[in-house]
């Protein structure tokens, strides 16, 4: 029969390894969440931002329509 200390050592080393992997995974997850928060703040989608005004929405819709027309012209499609 094998020495019981061998099993205890293997169990302890496995527990330490699992702990290290878990902590590394959690640290990576927190880093990813911070990245996504920074992206949201960078693009103005934070919680404290006001909704866009009607004029801004109309301007965006107009720009989208212009882009659609230019893409159709580039593709050779008559509107």
- Ends: how far apart? 85 Å
Percent of residues in helical segments?
over 70%
Count of discrete structural domains: 2
Return residue spans where pLDDT drops below 50 for at least 5 consecutive residues. none
Order of helices and strands: HH
The number of helical runs is 2
Number of strands: 0
Largest sheet: none
Content-based structural category: mainly alpha
In round numbers, the mean pLDDT is: 87
Give the overall shape, derived from the CA principal axes. elongated
Radius of gyration: 28 Å
Provide a brief overview of the structure.
The protein has two domains: 1-48; 50-79. It is 77% helix and 0% strand.
Polypeptide structure, described:
- With 79 residues, this protein is mostly helical.
- It has two domains: 1-48; 50-79.
- It is 77% helix and 0% strand.
- It is built from two helices and no strands.
- The chain has helices spanning 4-42, 54-75.
- The longest helix has 39 residues, at 4-42.
- The mean pLDDT is 87.
Sum up the structure in keywords.
79 residues; mainly alpha; 2 helices; 77% helix; 0% strand
Topology:
Layout: H1 4-42, H2 54-75
């Amino acid at each position: 029969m094998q020495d019981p200390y061998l099993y205890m050592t293997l169990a302890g080393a496995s527990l330490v390894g699992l702990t290290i992997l878990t902590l590394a995974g959690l640290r990576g997850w927190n880093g990813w969440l911070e990245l996504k928060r920074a992206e949201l703040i960078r693009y103005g989608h934070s919680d404290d931002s006001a909704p866009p005004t009607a004029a801004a929405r109309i301007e965006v819709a107009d720009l989208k329509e212009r882009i659609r027309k230019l893409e159709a012209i580039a593709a050779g499609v008559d509107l």
